[in-house]
Design goal:
Blueprint (H helix, E strand, L loop, with lengths): L2 H38 L10 H8 L1 H8 L4 H11 L11 H7 L1 H5 L4
Length: about 110
Amino acid sequence: MSKPVKNEVFELLKEKIFEAKEKKNEFFMQLLSLLNSLKSGKESNLVRLSSEVSQMLNDEKNYEKIQKAKNLDELLKLLEDLNKTDKMLKIYSNESLKTSFPELAKKNFL
């Protein structure tokens, strides 16, 4: 394989790996965004969810468990129990999460 082709293939692979990594990180952040919206009590907040998160929340029991999580540790434990694919989650610093999800911070969720 020529060097330019190798470089092109390498770049494509790097992009795919980055996209897959970002999707894993989005999973946790989408759930926090949903909880932030639910705990705010405002009906106008819309949350965009991936098909993977939507599929997990389609099961009413899963949705109820996640909605009733009292804090971040409880949410992480639930996700660990529900995680059938051994997905690795990226956890952000507490200060970063408090800035991104003010309603959860107010409710001492984070």
